[in-house]
Fold:
Amino acid sequence: MRLNFDLDNISREPLRVIDENISMNEYVSISLNASNNDINFDVSSSIAWEKYIDEYLLRSNAQVAFGGYLERRNIYQRSTHFNSIDKKNQRNIHLGIDFWCKENTTVLAVLDGEIHSYKNNNNYGDYGPTIILKHDIANMVFYSLYGHLTLESIQNIKVGTKIRKSEIIGRLGNNKVNGDYAPHLHFQLILDIKDFVGDYPGVASENEIEYYAENCPNPNLLLKLPNEI
Structure:
């Protein structure tokens, strides 16, 4: 797709969405795919997930574990927010890239833009506090979504506020506010946001994936993360 090519060329250098003080050498890719046999714990427990992520980072001598674009995951089966009796309509294909790291890690605007919307999506298993930025770059309008933030991240902010690339826009929340997950950032690109405000599907079903994979291109076109799974 032409737009994907243009996104890839917005920056020759990797763009950052979390704490710039964390070296890229301290990033490690991770698979949370349904076929990963290491995920043999209670996926309904955020505490079990946090233990798994912490141990993975320790073994990898890393601070950030990343990955997940178009990954098919079992974790969403725990929540009625994603479940459907019809398996073909179960939402279990992840549309963004996750960054698993410590609570309160700073979250950065990927590019210049403005606050499009924000919301506390407080369903069990949902995003929790979420910010969406609108970008208009090289005659392209698109959006970036930052989910699983702290409640403080969406206080005292206003729609339309101009944001600069790498500006701190929030921090990562804990399992009490972020949808009951281990701390992480869900980062997603959206081309046509339609009428969504402070929210947009971050997980799709098999029946929907052709549309969503096109409307939510791989964030790594901008981030250029090494060895993405």
DSSP finds four helices and twelve strands in the chain. The longest helix spans residues 46-60.
